[in-house]
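Re: the 156-residue chain
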Amino acid sequence: MSGPGTDPVRMLRALAGVRAPGGPTRGNQSEGDAFARILERARTGELRSGAPVRIVSGAGVTLTSEQLERLSAAADRAEAHGAGRAAFLIDGRCVVMDVGVRRVLGAMDLSGEGVLGEIDAVVAVPAPAADGEAVLAPPGLSGRGMNEALLRVLAG
């Protein structure tokens, strides 16, 4: 059950400056255009949910609060691209996260042979001082041996 303050459609309309159906919209833009603008802003990292990332017990992963914040921003981008479960390459490590609930499920060792399955996306999380945003690799790529510049080319 959602009240007026928790209705996702109303929240999106408020972000885009769009009034309820039947009422005037901002400029000549339809609600669909407004939603498309919001989605694009989320995909580029301009909009952030601020949803915290948590680590499930027994995951064997320890991250700093700064790393968790960067993962949160990267998870927003992954979710805007439709990812449900993603591998995040952060500071030389790979962690797997359930993007929808922002839970780190565990770490992956990419140094040996193996298959990274049940992953929708590979996300490179920029270093704290990096000017770039997180970059998504096409689905099906493991991210093994890929650097951020290569992921940017693939994502473009």
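The chain is about 30% helix and 15% strand.
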